[in-house]
Every structure is written in C-alpha cells, then in structure tokens.
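User: Could you check the structure of this?
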Amino acid sequence: MNEYSEECLITFLKNQGQLFDEPVAESLAEAEAFLEDCMAVVVNSLDEVRAYFEENGADIEGMSDEELEDASEVFVLPDDTYLIVEG
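Assistant: Sure, the predicted structure tokens are below.
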C-alpha cells in the first residue's frame, strides 16, 4: 500500500481534470482510495518518470522532458516530485 502525502492528494484532487473528464474523487479519502486502487506511484525526478513509462511499455521515444511533464498522467507535486496515475 502506498502512502500519499496530503499535498499529493490535494494536488490530485485539484488537477484530476487533466486526466479524467469527470471527477473520480471529491475528498482526500476518496482520492487516496482511488490512487491506491489504480496503483499510482510517486517518483522523485523526470528521469524516474521516463523510466516508469519505459518499464510499462509506453511509447515515449522522442518526448522531451517538458512534454513528459505535461503528459496527462503526470502530476507535478509541490515538492518537485511527480505523481503518475494511469487512467
């Protein structure tokens, strides 16, 4: 089970529209349960974001760091880490 910081949960709640057409969570508890269910991960750098996608077979060849950071599945957290949510 992952532990998601309060900042992580708040960021996801506020920005979930970048990945989903309709809200999937309306509270911190719902956000945490959703992230746990879809096995969302927090990584420390864009290099780790790139490695995560490569390990999971995503076609990211040729994507710049900026394009990777702007991917709908990637949420930039206030502490400069990244939440990856597979929709």
